[in-house]
Amino acid sequence: MQNVTIYSTPTCHFCHMAKDFFKEKNIAYTEYDVASNLEKRKEMVEKSGQMGVPVIVIGDEIIVGFNKPKIASLLGL
């Protein structure tokens, strides 16, 4: 199983959709709240080049936004 990380904020609708998708598929993930964690926000911007959330990292792949088909493909679902 690949490592899955999501950079999100508490008020982001697409972040909630992504996390619900991971839970539904029993995908373990690490979550960082970039609204309150400035260090992780900086890390997210350095990785993705932007401030939009969610930023989802699966293995070495970075996905900006909730791109369900791409996420499913990368996870082999």
Mean pLDDT: 95
Overall body shape: globular
User: Biggest sheet: strands side by side, in what order?
Assistant: 2-1-3-4
Helicity level, as a percent range?
A: 25-40%
Contiguous helical run count = 3
Question: What is the element string, with H for helices and E for strands?
Answer: EHEHEEH
Assigned CATH superfamily: Glutaredoxin
Q: Under the CATH scheme, which architecture would be assigned?
A: 3-Layer(aba) Sandwich
Query: Which ranges are low-confidence, i.e. pLDDT below 50, for 5 or more consecutive residues?
Result: none
Number of strands: 4
Rg, rounded, reads 11 Å
In percent, how much strand structure appears in the residues?
Answer: 15-25%
| Structural domain tally | 1
From the N-terminal CA to the C-terminal CA, the straight-line distance is 11 Å
Main pleated sheet: 4 strands, mixed
CATH class: Alpha Beta
Q: What is the CATH topology classification name?
A: Glutaredoxin
